[in-house]
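Reopening this one. Same input as before:
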Amino acid sequence: MPIEIRRKDVKILIEQDRAQILEVLPAAEYKKEHLPKAINIPLDRLTPENTRQMRKDTAVIVYCANYQCDLSARAAWRLESMGFQEVYRYTPGKEDWVASGFETEGANATRPKLKQYLKTNVQTCLLRDRMQDVQNRRGTNDICVVLNDRNIVMGIIDGDAWNANPLSRASGVMKPGPRTYRPDSDPREILKELKKDEADSAIVTTSDGELLGILRVGDRKTQAA
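Same output, byte for byte:
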């Protein structure tokens, strides 16, 4: 039975050259952008003859577009029926990989992306932190991103919230559910959106909600985007 695999585990196996990576989308989609070291055999061409280049005794990770795409599921079972001994299915697929800011190959891999303009020296605090400690660490920061123990964005502290009771917890002071953006977004479009909303910054996260950094509208590098 094909085994479900997580994005971070896929990344580790790619970096360590411990698995064969197979995209089963049409060739045109593969050429636009694909996972590092991936080869392309569209599902309708997944035959014993076309898989001769692949080793049956080495792990295979198969993927397609996203959760809605069933090509990877059918391809994984097809590979098992052909005698491949260790087959993994990366179900979230290429959209999940790209949205997390991981490196890709292909024609679209070199286009400008939001992740290139991020500031990672962001003030953060945990839900349980006292505001006294948060305020003492403020410095020149205009916002503090509130995280849980898994680095997931839970809220922000900004504006009048900075003046909250020093004994309060960040969880009780923060503005919950701030808008976030993915690292593969077009930075020019995001900047237009921020300027339209008269916003100074954008929080950038993975598709799991993990904080990656902040895009600052006034940053010199950002203005060159």
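So the earlier flakiness isn't reproducible anymore. For the record, The chain has two domains: 3-107, 115-223.
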